[in-house]
Design brief:
Blueprint: E1 11-15, H1 20-36, E2 39-46, H2 60-77, E3 87-93, H3 96-103, E4 109-113, H4 127-135, E5 140-143, H5 146-166
Parallel strand pairs: 1-2, 1-4, 2-3, 4-5
Helix pairs in contact: 3-4
Amino acid sequence: MNGTGSTAQRRIVVGVDGSESSRAALRWAVRQAALTGAVVEAVITWEFPAIYGWGMTLTDADFTTAAEQTLAQVTEEEKDPAHPVEISRRVERGNAARVLLDAAKGAELLVIGSRGHGGFTGAMLGSVGQHCVHHATCPVVVVRDTECQDTARDTEHRDTARAEHADVPTAGH
């Protein structure tokens, strides 16, 4: 319920761009929706690239079709038979942060990956995520992809193992 006595459908909005981080966010949103009885609204956005002096003509349909295909593929691949939930798909043209914030109005949660396709790979949170965290009207969950987590965990494990082995006396001493 949303506090007004209405029985509006519970909704979790998740940003999807095809990156591993967004796939992890979708998986998390599906599990959360199964626990709470919510539906998942998977949102993908697109904008015309800012390329000047290029002679190729592209149409809205080209970008919309590519976005639809990406979203359909990701939502099919990330469905979880153990957590069957309704996943609706939404394709919007516009700034990713603005589209996600608008889509999340009235939602229980906005779920985003920590990193998309662009930007600096060493950054902990991308620009879209930063904007959403600061401006969303609902709680925001930022999900790191497991590949990124495994890399951090492996590095931590190697550092710990190295420190532990440094104090081990060699045989015969």
